[in-house]
Amino acid sequence: QARPVESGGGSVQPGGSLNLSCAASGFTFGAKDMWWVRQAPGKVLEWVASISSMSNVIWYRDSVRGRFIVSRDNAKNIMYLQLNSLKLEDTAIYYCATNKYGSGRGQGTQVTVSS
Prior knowledge:
This protein has no helices and ten strands. A hairpin with a 4-residue loop joins strand 7 (about 70-75) and strand 8 (about 80-85). The protein is globular, with a radius of gyration of 13 Å. The strands form two sheets. The chain has a six-stranded mixed sheet, with no helix packed on it. It is an all-beta fold and about 120 residues long.
């Protein structure tokens, strides 16, 4: 099974925004619930957001709710994560995955928030 390809990361100041993308292939993307997970330096992998296959159920971890927005385009096999009002503690490698444990994740995209 091919791994997804995450992109869109970068370096921003606190309060900034980024828009991450996850391009999936090798599986029936439109039939799967998808997750964004992240791993900060020296910390364990944690889930950030999830979106059901038809986008009708969306979850966010408390620390990002109200700041991040997850969406998907099943016709394009792409999932997005809009990151707004970024904080220093959002610094991490962000991955898309097929469950909250990070299964099937790609190489990730680095998000660095620093002043």
